[in-house]
UniProtKB/TrEMBL annotation, chain A:
It comes from Blastococcus goldschmidtiae. InterPro entries: Thiolase (IPR002155), Thiolase-like (IPR016039), Thiolase_C_2 (IPR055140). Residues 238-381 form the Thiolase C-terminal domain. This is Thiolase. SUPFAM superfamilies: Thiolase-like. It holds the Pfam family Thiolase_C_1. PANTHER family: ACETYL-COA C-ACETYLTRANSFERASE, NON-SPECIFIC LIPID-TRANSFER PROTEIN-LIKE 2.
TrEMBL record, chain B:
Gene3D superfamilies: 6.10.30.10. InterPro entries: ChsH2_C, ChsH2_Znr, NA-bd_OB-fold, Thioester_dehydratase-like. Residues 19-55 form the ChsH2 rubredoxin-like zinc ribbon domain. This is Zn-ribbon domain-containing OB-fold protein. Residues 56-122 form the ChsH2 C-terminal OB-fold domain.
Amino acid sequence: MSAKDDIVIIGAAETDQLGKLPHLSTLSLHLEGARNALADAGMTPADIDGIATVQSPGPVGIAHALGIEATWLDGTGVGGTSFLFHVRHAAGAIRAGLAETVLITHGESGRSRVDAPGWGRSPQSLNGQFEAPFGVFGPPTAFTLTALRFMHETGTTLEQLAEVAVAQRRWANKNPRALMQDLVTVDDVFASKMIAWPFTLLMCCLVTDGGGALVVTTREKAEARGYDKPLVHLLGAGEAADSPMVSQMPDLTSFGGFKRSSAAAFAEAGITHSDVDHLMIYDAFAHVPLYGLEDAGFVGRGEAGAFVAEGHTSPGGRLPLNTNGGGMSYTHTGMYGMFAIQEAVRQVRGEAAAQVEGVERSVVMGNGGMFMAGATLVLGKSPR
Amino acid sequence: MPPPTKPAPVPTPETLPFWEGCAAGELRIQRCTSCGKHVFYPRPACPHCYSTDLEWVVSDGTATLHSYVISHRAGPGFAEEVPYVIAIVELPEGVRMMTNLVEVEADPEKLPLDMPLRVVFEPRGDVHLPLFAPAGSAA
């Protein structure tokens, strides 16, 4: 692929700290991530002509706060996977000549809720009429609703569901930035507080403050600037919609967002599963990585639970998964997708805390809302 | 501050026939006269064939338990119900809806998937909500 069509991530960074940051507003978290990513790229705001981020503060707010007279904006907001969508949209825009260098930002005061958007939904909305009346209280009681059906139809056991949390804690144990680092057992997972049966606390993601940003441009531009870090190439990307309400998914045991976006991304990248050295699957709850493994075809139907329980996704396993510790052990601001991309970039660059040896290609699969929208990125050390 | 009350739906023009049905003790869903498929949630066009010729039909009030969680945290107004069952049920026509299970203990042993259910209607705000009870339990 020519240097001017080869899309690269030239800057990637998170906020200095993750966790409980009540001294930083939503906007400040975005901007700290942006400053760090620009520094990583060796750039200043003057080098950026495109901005992508979710509401709020949205792309206009970010551009204005950074003093950027942006001429390409993307405010796609489909939940925590939005930043994967932004990477794909930025790649398309850059190849079409609509933008040269795009800054993608995330910041969320998920825990301290400093200028965080409210939860309220209109009682006239579809959610307000057909889900909220039944005592749904955020993702822990709605996102989880599909799991029993999945287990019933695939033969996945409760122990295997718990093993997802156990496996990811093994990675977090190697990552000094992970919020939860102590190793846990299946019994520990079962003994933690019951949230929404069959989900206990340790099968649920964290709730934190934090942010991060990416700078996306072409290899041509990166080479012209004399960029001296390993470039991370976008080899393929896909995006897909599923259902605006979890109760209206066409199939509770398979996520169209993972299925269709991964097929598109793999096809564009021209890779098969055996080409993948490292994998990130958005883990808001323990069942979601099991969907990802099956929907993307890394394992067959009904095999994901055993695959994780046998250690294949753990340190030393053949398919290292969620190597930062994931949303369940590393951090989860609410829209976690940015952090999944960040870890994939670190792994491809060879600078992750729990570095996997010889990562040529990494796949990132994002979920937005509760099985609402999905996206997949294939990142590589070498151009396509 | 008074304790929060349970959220009550407010109908829109396209959902009103559904809620009017609930008030009349009927579970009404849409059926496409063009392709014959059933549709839920209420909407102006068939997602299967794009036809706008949808009619309202009365479902027989039975369903099966498709999936569920037992919430140990109280949603707004649900403090006294904890733990309570939030479920997705499947109607004989194949459409699914979210609901709560009533007249049954919130105990996984009592709640096998695919168990037969029947609808009961609970007044809430200006509407009646469709909840489901085990088919065999006393009416």
